[in-house]
């Protein structure tokens, strides 16, 4: 399987995955950029969009881990030439995601006010957050079913279909953001923050429709449910459960960061919203190579090709770090201009610029962590990923944030804590992979 770890094959999966991956945070970034430049109450609306965006990301990351589990199982069966064994698993996994999304919607939409009060939101920010979330939450079923199908595509070593769906969805979101937020005189009244929410909903619906088209036209699978539970369903749910716990810990860190930033004041949470969404954008960008590692790594494990598995880790590490350095250089070049894309409030921009360099500095470390994350998911190592994230969050991030807050570092405390968090994650993954696969025989 030498070709599996060639530059061409890795990038055949990674580049479409990068484009598909950045489409989701691009939707949130577009919302923030458009909302942040509305004349009335822009800081409050920007803060609300950032808080809700973080919460939505937290929920979606947690419950969408079945996407990764599906991808790992399919890629391993593809490598072992046993795809027929998972044909009944696919409709069962998609149905599970759909039903689970309804549970998430029912258990959060009614309690939106209480949820965002827990983020220390109050007054106009709380009201905006509640209104925005009530609409965005309708997209849970659309997003989670789409993600399940994207996991199937990735397991089949194809990320091009997901890229096409995501790009179209992002284009729909950008166009509707401007039409609905600002309105069209005499035709569409300006809807402000609610308009951004409806634009996001339309983008998610577009991606789902396209994903189903590729699913039926291009894959060997179907949606006919079998009364007999596929034997792999237990493995899928166990892997997903470990990843749920892992992602819950990950999003606890994000929640804590936003809660502290909100408590510091509206300008701080507005700046934090921009910083966090740029960090997420970078993360999804670099994550394209992690997706390649996930798909190819699972296939190599299924074929028991450990030599190429080691080569895969080295090559993808180099590519991911290079991407991180390029992103750092671009942002360094336009350091003082980037903040203006999202907000014109001088006090917000000063806070943003004072901390943005920390976000940039950590990108190579992020690249290594995300890349090995992807490979470990493809190998089915969900339990180790869970334990490492718990250690990084509760023994690294949380103490660092509390200590920094005690010394009055505010946004610096948040991002130094994130830096420590990523150092623990990347270090733990590299050490484990070297011990397990460096000298393993084929």
Low-pLDDT stretches: none
Instruction: Give a count of the beta strands, DSSP E runs of length 2 or more.
Output: 0
Q: Which word captures the global form?
A: globular
H/E topology pattern:
HHHHHHHHHHHHHHHHH
- Average pLDDT, all residues: 86
Distance between the termini: 12 Å
Percent strand: under 5%
Largest sheet: none
Q: What is the structural class?
A: mainly alpha
Give Rg in angstroms.
21 Å
State the helicity in percent bands: over 70%
| Number of helical regions | 17
Any overview of this molecule?
- With 442 residues, the protein is mainly alpha-helical.
- The chain has 17 helices and no strands.
- The protein has helices at 7-35, 42-63, 65-79, 89-108, 112-117, 123-136, 140-155, 160-182, 192-218, 232-264, 266-302, 306-333, 335-338, 346-361, 363-378, 382-406, 411-437.
- Helix 1 (7-35) runs antiparallel to helix 11 (266-302), helix 6 packs parallel to helix 9 and helix 10 packs antiparallel against helix 11 (266-302).
- The chain crosses the membrane at residues 45-64, 85-112, 132-153, 165-184, 196-216, 236-257, 269-290, 319-342, 348-372, 384-403, 409-431.
- It is found in: Cell membrane.
- It comes from Salegentibacter chungangensis.
């Amino acid at each position: 399987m030498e070709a599996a770890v060639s530059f061409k094959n890795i990038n055949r999966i990674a580049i479409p995955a990068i484009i598909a991956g950045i489409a989701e945070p691009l939707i949130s970034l577009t919302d923030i950029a458009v909302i942040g430049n509305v004349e009335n109450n822009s800081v409050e609306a920007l803060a609300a969009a950032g808080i809700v965006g973080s919460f939505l990301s937290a929920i979606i990351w947690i419950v969408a881990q079945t996407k990764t589990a599906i991808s790992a199982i399919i890629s391993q069966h593809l490598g072992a030439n046993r795809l027929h064994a998972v044909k009944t698993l696919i409709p069962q996994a998609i149905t599970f995601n759909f039903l689970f999304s309804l549970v998430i919607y029912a258990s959060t939409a009614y309690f939106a006010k209480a949820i965002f009060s827990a983020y220390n939101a109050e007054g106009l920010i709380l009201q905006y957050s509640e209104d925005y979330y009530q609409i965005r939450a309708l997209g849970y079923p659309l997003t989670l079913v789409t993600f399940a199908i994207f996991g199937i595509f990735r397991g089949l070593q194809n990320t091009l279909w997901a890229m096409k769906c995501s790009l179209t969805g992002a284009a729909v979101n950008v166009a509707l953001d401007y039409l609905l937020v600002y309105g069209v005189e005499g035709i569409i009244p300006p809807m402000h923050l609610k308009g951004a929410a409806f634009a996001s909903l339309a983008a998610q619906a577009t991606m789902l429709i396209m994903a189903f088209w590729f699913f039926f036209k291009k894959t060997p699978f179907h949606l006919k449910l079998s009364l007999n539970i596929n034997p792999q369903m237990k493995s899928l749910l166990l892997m997903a459960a470990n990843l749920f716990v892992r992602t819950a810990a990950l999003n606890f860190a994000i929640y804590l960061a936003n809660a502290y930033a909100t408590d510091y004041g509206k300008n701080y949470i507005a700046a934090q919203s921009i910083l966090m969404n740029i960090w997420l954008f970078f993360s999804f960008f670099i994550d394209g190579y992690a997706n390649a590692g996930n798909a190819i790594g699972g296939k190599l494990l299924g074929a028991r090709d450990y030599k190429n598995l080691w080569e895969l880790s080295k090559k993808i590490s180099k590519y991911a770090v290079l991407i991180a350095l390029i992103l750092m250089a671009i942002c360094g070049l336009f350091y003082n201009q980037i903040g203006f894309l999202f907000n014109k409030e001088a006090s917000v921009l000063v806070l943003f610029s004072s901390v943005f360099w920390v976000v940039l500095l950590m990108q190579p470390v992020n690249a290594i962590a995300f890349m090995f994350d992807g490979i470990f998911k493809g190998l089915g190592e969900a339990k180790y990923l869970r334990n490492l994230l718990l250690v990084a969050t509760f023994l690294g991030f949380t103490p660092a944030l509390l200590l920094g807050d005690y010394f009055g570092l505010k946004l610096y405390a948040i991002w130094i804590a994130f830096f420590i968090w990523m150092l623990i994650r990347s270090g733990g993954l590299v050490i484990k992979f070297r011990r397990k696969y460096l000298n393993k025989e084929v």
